[in-house]
Every structure is written in C-alpha cells, then in structure tokens.
Fold:
Amino acid sequence: MRAANKAQEQARRRTDEKGRRRDAARRARELAEQQAEAMPLVDDVERPRHERVVDAELVDPAPHGGILEVLSMRYLLRLIVRRELAKMYAASVLGLLWSYVQPATRFVVYYFIFGMVMQVHRGVPNFAVHLFCGMVFLHYFTETWAGGTRSIRTNRQLVLKMRVPREIFPVSMMIVAFYHTGPQLLLLLVVCLLIGWHVTWTAVLAGLLGLAILVLFSMAMAMIFSALNVYAQDTQNIVSTFGQFLHFMVPMIYPFSFIADIGERHPVIYQLYLANPLAEAVMLLQKFFWQPLAAHPESLEANFPADLWERGVIMLAVCALLVFLAQRFFSRVEGRIPELL
Amino acid sequence: MSTSIVVEDVTKQFTMAYHRSLKQMAVAKLRRLPLREHFKAVEDVSFTVEQGESIGLMGLNGSGKSTLLKLINGVMRPDEGRIRTRGRVAGLIATGAGFHPQLSGRENLYLNGAILGMGEKEITRKFDDIVEFAGLGKFLDTPVSHYSSGMNARLGFSIAVHVDADIFLADEVLAVGDRPFKKKCLEKLQEIRAEGTTIFYVSHATGSVRQMCDRVLVLESGRLNFDGDVDAGIHYLQYDEPTDDDTAADEEIGADI
Structure:
C-alpha cells in the first residue's frame, strides 16, 4: 500500500526515483538555449592561479551566537540603530519631536483627568513627578516591545538574504527606544533638581535595580514577540492593544496605596498586580526620582509595598531567567524564520 | 590545499502552510484538505569543496539551488546534517541583494558591508571602488526602491565582490543586468577565481559554466545526482541515457497506476 502511494506520488510529480523529472533533459536544453545568448563568454584569466591560504577554521556558517554575538557586532548594531531612527522620521517635518508629542498629550490628559477631576493626587505630593516618572519608563518598555515585535518583519529583506544573528533586530529596537526616552529622562531629572532633589545611596540602589529589571524584561519580551510575530502577524496587534492597558497596571496615575487597600480584601489581585515586573521597576524608580522630593520621605512609605526590596531582587532574577529562556526560545524557532517570511 | 566547504548529509525541509487565518483553516478542515505539507528542498546532499575550486551549480528551476546556497551562506540552517565553511562567505542569492528599500544606495552599501563582516574603515577604504564598479553615479543617494533591478544587482554584486571573501556565491543574479555589465561581472569573477577564491556559480548557460567552472554539481528535486567533471555534468543534465534501469522504473510506476 505504501509502495503504491509512493509510486503514485512520483507519477504525480513526474520524477523518477532519483528525483529526475521526466522532461528534465529537454527543459535543461531549453533553458541553456535561452540563456546562452544572455550570458557573454569570458575567458579564464591568463594568469597563473594563486593558491589562497585562508587563515580560519571550518565553522558553522550559521552559528547560534545569540545576544552575545550581537553585542560583539558594535558597528553593525550602530548602523542599524541609526537607520531605524532615520527611517522613522524620514518624511515628517517635525521629525524626532513626534515621539514627544504623544507622551506629552497623554501626560496632560492623565494629569487633568485623574489628578484634577478624580482627585487622585490628594495625598500624593509632587503628583506630576509620580506620574511622569512612571510614564517615561513605561514608554521605554512599550517602545521596545512594540518596535521589537515588528523588527524582524520590517527587516525581511535583510533576514532573507544575508546572514546576521537575528537577535540584532529586537536588540537594536531596545537602543532605538532609549534614544526616544533619553530626552524625557533628562527632562525628568531637570524637574526633580528644580523641585529640590537629594540623592541617597538607597535611592541610587533602588534606581539601578529598577532600571535593570526594566531593561532585562524589555529585552526578553522584544525577543519572544519578534519571533512570534513571524509566525502570525496578529502578534503586533495584540501587543499594541495590550500596551494601552499597561498604563493602568503600574502605580503611576494612582498611588500604590490604592492597591494596598484592595489587597486587604483581594490578596490574589494584589499578588497578581505585583507579579508584573514593570510594577516593581516603576516603584523602584519612583523611590529614586520621586520619594526624595518630599519634605519627609519616610511619610511616603505607604506608597510602596513593605517588601519592595525583596520583590525587586527576586524580580531581577526572574527577568534574567526570562532573558535566558527568551534566547533559548528564539534560537529554537529562528531556523524557520526565513521560510515563514 | 585546504578544505573550503564541507556539506554532510544535509536535508532542508520546508513546511508549506496553505491557510493562514482561522477561518480558512476551519474551511479546509471541513473539506478535509491538508492544512500543511512538507517537502524537502534539499535532500541528503553531501560534498566537499577545496579552497579555490570553482563549482558550477546546475539544475532546473525549483531543484533546490538557491536553498543550497542559502544553507552555505548561513541564511538558513539545515534540518539534518551539517555544514562547515572556512573564511568569509559573500555573494548574491536569488535576484536582488538584501537592501532596505527606503534607504539610499550609500546607506545600504555601508549596512551590507558591515553584515558581510567589514569594519567601518575597510568599507570607507573600498567605498570609491565599489561605487565605481556599480556605476550608480548620481543615484547613490536615492532610495534603493527607485533603482531599476539592474542597478540593484550592480550595487549588490559590487559590494559582494569587494568584500574579499574566501567563498563567493553567485546565484542567477547576473540574469538581470545588461550585457556590458554582465561581461564586467564575469571578468571580475574570473579575476577572483584566479586569486584562489572558492566560487559557486549558478547558471543554465552551458558555455558560461564551461568557462567559469572546474566542476559541476547537478541538483534534481533537491538531490545531488551528479558531482564531477564539467562536460560530463552538462551531458548528464541535458541528455537522457535510456538504461534498463530507467525503463524498468517507468514500467513499475505505470503498473501501479
């Protein structure tokens, strides 16, 4: 039965058991005839052939280099980042300014609706900084995530034709996102300094921890979703939809004390809320930027979970593991990327 | 002489998904149509190439030539078997280089050069040569999407050829250029051949293959059916030799149907 199937299959494809088509010879002659005219004949060079000595080992042409290989290709990374930045604003008059218009309007809306109208800012000194601090870092995450998700598809020409470690595309979007958030960060710093900011070592430590969580989490998500988006382009729509929710899933337009209140009645919701690495990252960064601004920083401890430090350290380990797993996942599916594009 | 390329029992399988959306999949399921089908673009291919050999890769369209080249330059990975290459691999696979349509020729030149493993200094040093060989003139700073397919191929070939690669892959890229440029490219190819670069040259034109290559590989439905002398390879490809074996196989198939 199987043999009969196979024979039928071969008959259908008109090939013999070696894979040669029945009309192979005729077709080959036709093609050769067509192209004989097109290809000019060029004689071999009248020079003695050199023997080329290649000083290299025999290696896999497509090594699983991963993120580490990407980080060693600084020049290429720089070119790709520069190109992404140039491309994004290629045909716009305001150029790079556009990446500030949207966050700025969103900030104004949140500030008035949640602060002024709904009076969330009562009990939150320097509410604007509390809000802006969260928005800047969340913006970094959503930019990396959304940009990273699209990155392999938008670079399909390169992916299909040239060998590069494909992690370079999501990783480059991390750097592009930094260019977009950098000036906002600067603005945040200036505002903090004007209000009267004093740095303590604990605050610096909190800031660094928050930043590390943010960067690692962004990288892992960008990598996983860039690969998923090759399989189904729905991914980028899911990502942009979900990105909108994120603003409400971290304590920035409301203080953390709201969540702590809910937590007394619904401990599950409380735990789920804090299972979001971005919530920890934002609070740790608020500890750095926002808390020291107050006249009595100790009085703001209610705006942070009591175990924020422990949670932060655990979350850092979780995010590092996530990057590792993202790399494993990426390496596994990467081989199929060119055929799916 | 050292080994340049080792290909061992390499198989590359493609999965063709016929239906991408959920609705289409449901309809296909109801009609009992296959959702996806596998086929082997390259099947169990093994060969070894010495440094400096010039290989003519022949076979009908769809026989797996481009896939094999993609496996050698690392764009794709084999599903089974393994491939090893020594040194820098450059070249053009299928028509058109890996260019970004919105970027200018200049930006693409730098980007492509960097991907092929050149540093900033090396590209800057070779920049004028590349531009001159490609003959783009004032179009260097126009987006590549405005280029004709010939210009595209010219720039791509020019970059690849100036990389000073140890292995050069020339797929049917030259099919799009105009005649004088093709001549120029083939001359250049002969030049790098004389310098001892390993070359993979894909063409249907027998005369051109005879002049360019020392050895021919013939792929048929992804299988390596001939590996050897150029003339014998061309003969194998173009003329049937009805042997007892062949006719027996044909009858067998006929009987089953």
Summary: Chain B touches chain A through 89 residues (CB under 8 Å). Strands of chain B lie at 3-17, 36-50, 54-58, 80-86, 89-92, 167-170, 198-202, 215-220, 223-228.
